[in-house]
Design goal:
The protein is mainly alpha-helical and 444 residues long. It has helices at 12-19, 22-46, 55-70, 83-95, 108-144, 164-189, 208-214, 224-260, 287-310, 320-328, 331-346, 366-375, 380-393, 415-427, 431-442; strands at 149-154, 157-163, 191-192, 219-220, 267-268, 350-351. The chain is 60% helix and 5% strand. A hairpin with a 2-residue loop joins strand 1 (149-154) and strand 2. The relative contact order is 0.12.
Length: 444
């Protein structure tokens, strides 16, 4: 079944190529397609395009299909093009002609748009939860290890004192910025395209404000042409926000791989969380973090992939958009898997607390010696030269008692302020509104 099919059967080879992986991808959109249809038929009854007595019949059956999807009893049958066709087919099989009425005032274009936006909203909420869990752990580890010094690096050369408190806290604060970007993407996605039709509206007296309220959108895409132009753009912006998160955890993973190597030996993990070598019995490989790094780089490429698919398209709908789903929809499970396994690994991290006492790291305290002389009244440039001479002559002796107390430094991590910023961003998503609307739509 195809929503657009008339009396001509499409060539089998053409159908195979044009449908692609749509049936597989559309299973992810199935519950959202039903919700969109529930809001749409409610609106049709409100404006007189559907008899009032037929509305509860349709709503009841749509709720039944929704329950079947929740219980994994829903499939897109062979010969059925997509989830939209499958839902309408089931309604027609079960209700007869009433089921054929749900597409009035609607196109597959705005139907898939609303499905995607409903999916994106829920998927972003799940990702926000995973980010928040990792953030919380990083702050806990930052506080726990705030007095454990490690070398800081510039140009991969030992530079100045850092600490595990600073290191964990840095990635926690990075996640706050990532959440800010993700919130912006959520606001773009949280606009209702339903009623834009094929991109040019409808002659029916649709009430788009009503469907916006029923589905818990913050507002609607007002201009129907732009609603269709938002296909691809929304996915690209969301993908960019996922790429921002991926950049943070990918960079952190690179640090872990370095710090776990014997050349650094700052940290390690229990043997059962590492892998070995087929010929080298001593190996403990950080495969989890290497795979996080690889998957993160893949996610960072996704916005550009989407841009390359859409960057040369004029306004209006084109089948190119279908290809985006195959890369975009699985991205959420990819980033969530990485966040969750990173949380699990870091929950079991083993920190070495005597790193900076090794002789090779003594020069990270050279700036401390310069600052000590400056506090005694020596001009900075003279103090710099004096300490440089001590290092050249081999007379430099490190002082391990550092005093970094300004905001965000080793002795003043500002973790409470960073957490407050994170909470402010979380509260800005407003997930409660969409969750409440969907519960009301389902009668739960």
């Amino acid at each position: 079944m195809k929503l657009w099919q008339k009396d001509t059967n499409v060539n089998a080879q053409i159908e195979k190529f044009t449908v692609g992986r749509d049936r597989e991808m559309d299973l992810l959109l199935a519950p959202h397609d039903v919700l969109g249809s529930m809001a749409h038929v409610t609106m049709l009854a409100e404006v007189g395009l559907l008899p009032k007595e037929e509305l509860p019949v349709l709503i009841k059956e749509l709720k039944q299909i929704y329950a079947e999807i929740e219980n994994n009893n829903f499939t897109i049958e062979e010969g059925v093009e997509d989830v939209h066709s499958q839902v309408e087919l089931l309604l027609t099989q079960r209700l007869g002609d009433i089921g054929k009425k749900i597409h009035s005032g609607r196109s597959r274009n705005d139907q898939v748009l609303v499905d995607l936006k409903l999916y994106i909203r829920d998927a972003i909420e799940n990702t926000v939860t995973a980010v928040n869990q990792l953030f919380t752990l990083l702050i806990e580890l930052s506080e726990k290890h705030k007095n454990t010094l490690i070398p800081g690096y510039t140009h991969l050369q030992v530079a100045m004192p850092s600490s595990f408190g600073l290191w964990f806290g840095a990635y926690a604060e990075s996640l706050v910025d990532d959440l800010t970007v993700l919130q912006a993407a959520y606001k773009v996605a949280n606009k209702n395209p339903l009623g834009s039709g094929a991109g040019y509206g409808s002659s029916f007296p649709l009430n788009r404000t009503l469907t916006t309220s029923l589905l818990g959108f913050e507002t609607l895409n007002h201009n129907v042409v732009y609603a269709q132009m938002g296909r691809g753009k929304t996915e690209q912006l969301v993908a960019a926000s996922l790429a921002s998160i991926a950049s943070t955890i990918g960079r952190m993973s690179m640090d872990v791989c370095l710090y776990m190597s014997q050349n650094f030996a700052f940290l390690t993990f229990p043997d059962e969380l590492t892998t070995g070598s087929s010929i080298m019995p001593h190996k403990k490989n950080p495969d989890v973090f290497e795979l996080i790094r690889a998957k993160s780089n893949k996610l960072r490429a996704l916005p550009n992939e989407i841009f390359m698919m859409t960057g040369n398209l004029p306004s209006g709908y084109f089948r190119d958009m279908q290809s985006i789903k195959e890369s975009f929809l699985p991205a959420f499970s990819e980033i969530n898997d990485c966040l969750q396994i990173a949380h699990y690994m870091l929950s079991n991290i083993i920190i070495k607390d005597t790193v900076v006492t090794e002789d090779k790291y003594k020069y990270i305290f050279s700036v401390e010696r310069v600052n000590e002389l400056v506090l005694q009244g020596v001009p900075f440039r003279d103090a710099y030269k004096q300490v440089g001479k001590e290092i050249e002559e081999g007379s430099f002796t490190p002082n391990y008692n550092i005093n970094h107390n300004h905001e965000g430094s080793i002795g003043n991590l500002c973790n409470a302020q960073i957490t407050a910023q994170k909470d402010l961003v979380l509260n800005g998503f407003g997930f409660e509104k969409k969750s409440k609307a969907i519960k009301e739509l389902l009668g739960r």
